[in-house]
Amino acid sequence: MTIPKLIACDIDGTLMDYNQSSLSPELFPLIDRLIERGIRFCPASGRQYSSLLRLFDPVKEQLVCLCENGGILYDEKGRVLDKTVMDRKLAMALARNMLAMDDCEIIFSGENTTYAVLKGPGLDEQLRNFTGNHVAVIQSPEEMPEEILKLSAYCPRGAVNYFDRIRDKWGDIFQVAIGGPCWLDTALADKGVGIRALARALDIRLDEIMAFGDNYNDMPMLELVGMPYVVNRSTMKDIPDHFARCQRVEEVLEEILRHC
Prior knowledge:
Largest sheet: 6 strands, mixed
CATH superfamily of the largest domain: HAD superfamily/HAD-like
CATH architecture of the largest domain: 3-Layer(aba) Sandwich
Mean pLDDT: 93
Structural class: alpha/beta
Number of domains: 2
Strand order of the largest sheet: 8-7-6-9-11-10
Low-confidence stretches: none
CATH topology of the largest domain: Rossmann fold
Radius of gyration: 18 Å
Order of helices and strands: EHEHEEEHEEHEEHEEHEHEEH
Helix content: 25-40%
Shape: globular
Distance between the termini: 9 Å
Oligomer: single chain
Number of helices: 8
């Protein structure tokens, strides 16, 4: 078995089900042992940095993090390694487009705060209680006070119902991806952009990276790395033949540790 220098791992749908709010306790000692052997571990998620620190609390000071689908990267000390910012004027036009879609609500992602434009209480409750994000409520898109790393639509009727509409209008400008059953994410970066920047910052070759994912927003990352894995519960179609599959990420981590 080839031993990676970095393991990048999606969270929702990969390390845990979409309806879960915590990781398996068995994961943390595995990460400790990997880091002891010089193998870095990187959560690679659409989540905010503070949400990842909350999820990975027992090992949070040992992680590099790819957040906001590659829009911003942090090292083990919480320093920003790289970030990719959306054009503000275009992001405002896209935000207005999203708000016009039936019952959809939107969130802007800053460096470590989520700014929500709400139509009701459901999204606010989910952001605060489920994701663990730092949340600020704003009344209109124009009140967004930071540079914009990502703009997401929360679509209770299902993100798939709005994907084509946003991609057809905005896909030549921004990356458009389904980030979960109810989430439609748009950004200038994607996880592929993020993993390239992370490899460059850490002086690691892409073929020395192992990555795990379950969804189409993971594909830009999986297609770049030398050791891509897709979890068996993934519903993606046309997965490349060279991608490996696994039942659980923890089982692959245990296998790595047996060989190093």
